[in-house]
Write a structure and sequence with these properties.
This protein has 93 residues and is an alpha+beta fold. It has a single domain, classed as Alpha-Beta Plaits, CATH 3.30.70. Helices cover 25% and strands 41% of the residues. The chain contains two helices and five strands; from the N terminus they run E-H-E-E-H-E-E. The protein has a five-stranded mixed beta sheet. The N and C termini lie far apart (34 Å).
Length: 93
């Protein structure tokens, strides 16, 4: 059985108004990871992802660049306990 992983992210830079959440959801569905993405009032994007370790790591790598229109400056990562809390990946508003 493959190891599971859960990570909470704060993505900083020009990450709002550039379809970051939409592209994140598309990538998460492609990688079969679950969790959420949302805009924070301070201009950052917050994300929680969980799933198979290799797929979560691929999503993390993608987040460091983001979609073509984004300018990611920093990604804060915090590994969390895996609970399998989410059944899908969704955009929170």
């Amino acid at each position: 059985m493959e190891d599971k992983k859960a990570v909470h992210l704060v993505i900083k830079g020009r990450v709002q108004g550039v379809a970051f959440r939409w592209y994140s959801m598309k990538k998460a569905v492609e990688l079969e990871v679950t969790g959420y993405v949302k805009n924070n009032s301070n201009g950052n994007v917050e994300m929680f992802i969980e799933g198979k370790e290799k797929k979560v790591d691929s999503m993390l790598k993608w987040c460091k660049t983001g979609p073509p229109s984004a300018d990611v400056q920093e990604v804060e990562e915090k590994v969390e306990d895996f609970f399998g809390k989410y059944s899908k990946f969704e955009i929170l508003y």
